[in-house]
Amino acid sequence: MSNILQAILNIEKSASTQLRASRNAVNRMNSIGEGLEAYIKDAFAGTIDETNLETKDIAVSKVFSYLGNANNIPDAMLKGGDAIEVKKIQGFNSGIALNSSYPKDKLYSDDHRVSKACIESEDWESKDIIYAIGIVPKKGKLKHLWMVYGDCYAANREVYTRIGSTIKEGVETIVDVEFSETKELGRVNAVDPLGITYLRIRGMWHIENPLTVYKNIYEVNKELSFSLSCILQKSKFDSFPKKDREAIKNNKNIATKDIKIKNPNNPAQMLDAVLITIEEK
After folding, report:
1. Do 134 and 36 touch, CB atoms closer than 8 A?
2. Running DSSP on this structure, what letter comes out for residue 214?
3. How far from chain centre, in Å, is Cα 228?
């Protein structure tokens, strides 16, 4: 079973951070985004430098139980392991657009934004989720990769669903409004006297870049050719196979450090966590 430590080892071993152009994307930005997704999947499958597409596909199918689509979270799910959501940004200070999907501390199978194919790909109720955030400023070359677990980054889902519920309740109190439930926040029907106009209410969630959130813990050297930083709770790090943990700690090109981070549900509390970094000149 693949895991994030193996992916980091594969990235360190690889000679390339050049993202492959997508054959399916309709524009350059989509091409870069799909190229980043492919790179992350290759990292977990150990096929970053593999040039034979059939060999890649076979390796990826052995590692992942689900590969996502543009409309549903997650982008991928490891067999018996974590879910992965990939986000591309161009600047070091850019926020992360999550669109209609609020930040996830974990991925739950009862979330209506999760596709039926994903739910049925394994027997599962919840999974830890990795946000893989790539900074790709130009020419399709990955400059920095943040990999952070949702439970280090986002609050419990009740924090976010409460906002949606409150908005719906508020709309329903408006006189002469016909409100209907949708997969978005809702819809107001028959707004005008003819009853032919309707209003879609949807969330557009954003979250601060990890470079900002964790700037007191790790600051990216923008002069480097490539860098990677990963934050996960200490308990999660310790749950991985001993051979993978030792391989990370014994690799001279990978640094590990025990750190403290704020609990996303209560910033007065500190969580034991691990910072893993790679820096290439």
Report:
1. yes
2. T
3. 15
Residue 87 has pLDDT above 90, yes or no: yes
DSSP string, 17-82: -BPPPPSS-SSHHHHHHHHHHHHHHHHHHT-TT---HHHHHHHHHHHEEEE--TTSS-SEEETTS-
pLDDT digits (tens, 9 = 90+) for 108-120: 999 988 999 999 9
Q: Buried (b) or exposed (e) across 198-213, using 16+ Cβ within 10 A?
A: eeeeeeeeebebbbeb
Distance in angstroms (rounded) separating the CA atoms of residues 244 and 12: 14
Mean pLDDT, range 117-134, rounded to an integer? 97
Classify strands 83-89 and 266-280 as parallel, antiparallel or unpaired. Answer: unpaired
CB within 8 A of 140, min separation 6: which ones?
Answer: 18, 19, 20, 21, 31, 32, 35
Percentage helix, strand, coil for the chain under 3-state DSSP, each rounded to 5: 30, 30, 40
| Separation CA 279–CA 36 (nearest Å) | 19
Domain boundaries, the chain: 4-156+205-280, 162-200
3-state DSSP call for residue 225? coil
Between 94 and 123, the higher pLDDT residue: 123
Judge contact between 114 and 106, C-beta under 8 A. no
Backbone phi, psi, residue 106, to 5°: -145, 165
Strand partners, 257: 275
Question: In 10 A of CB 240, how many CB atoms?
Answer: 17
CB-CB contact of 28 with 263 (8 Å): no
Q: pLDDT category, 90, cuts 50, 70, 90? A: confident
